[in-house]
Here is the input.
Amino acid sequence: MIGRRAALRAGLALAAGLVLAGGVRVLTAPAPDVSETFYVFGTLLEVETHGVPAAQARDAMAVLGAHFRQMHRDWHAWAPGELESLNAAMAAGQSFEVAPGLAKLLQQGRDLACRSEGLFDPAVGGMVEAWGFHADTPPEGDPPSDAVVAKLLAGAPKMTDLTIEGTTVRSSNPAVQLDLGAYAKGAALDLAEADLTAAGIRDAVLNAGGGVQVLGDHGSRPWRVAIRDPFEWGVVGAVSLRPGEALHTSGNYERYFDKGGIRFSHIIDPRTARPMRGVVSVSVLSDNGALSDAAATALCVAGEEDWPRIAAQMGVSAVLRITDDGSIFATPEMRARLEAVEGGFPAPITVVDLPKDVAIPLCPEG
Here is the structure.
């Protein structure tokens, strides 16, 4: 990794001007028009508008703030709120009436879980909790025992266990415990984009940890973001986002704990009930935040042979995948969009084609 670190240091002159945003960083103008920061789902979410009067921007921020607070309360997996109440009801074998927004989000999660063949599956909240990631602070202590992991696997929770009829939700499997963290930020940015558009704001950037979503442009140029190098303080490359695009990154470099020289990620493989291995980060570019967010998680879990097929099934074509040995893989569309920063790319990029004809898995009715 010595050569890689040297290349990264060569790029720090550019990187010094970036705003840190987990997996991606926004290249901003020296003086943003109007910006405000919110705390949602355990991360800071920054909204920056361009080209609108301050009063109009502040009114829009007030609406966003109210909606973000509601999402944080109702979609939170381990704090009192609507999702926690739903999880308790399902564990007791009962139906539960949810708000229309949550019902829509769960239906979207169910569909994405099917497309990913269950590699992205919000029903595995019990597995996430067992590894200590249902807390605002990093886990402490030992990993769960093999017996606990075996019990979690035997429960076989999955999104297709859910039946969603209007706003009534129930589960045929009491082991289902929902954790929406793998796509809630992306979904929140989708809703925030709709709020800003309704407020007459055409140009803005929303930056939430590992996710960035944009409206319009930044004046005469596009919004430009950089994908963080997960090994050091540096960047892999930059992407100029087109209006309405979202770029989300998932990986093992922010939420994790180390034990016995092993890093345990918060991203759990539903097939093993253990943290994913072998991949450090995945970035996905698309025109939908929830899709980008969910696909980044699924492609962290998918193996070397399967990830191109899973990407195609989920409907994403711009993917950057970095493995734990520092190798970088990109789909042709992502490679074409990826711009080298000063000092070049930190490692050679291997281009991987996606299969052209894939059968899209369909969810059973429910």
Residues 231 and 249 are 14 Å apart (CA to CA). The longest strand covers residues 279-286. The first helix runs from residue 2 to 10. The chain has eleven helices and 20 strands.
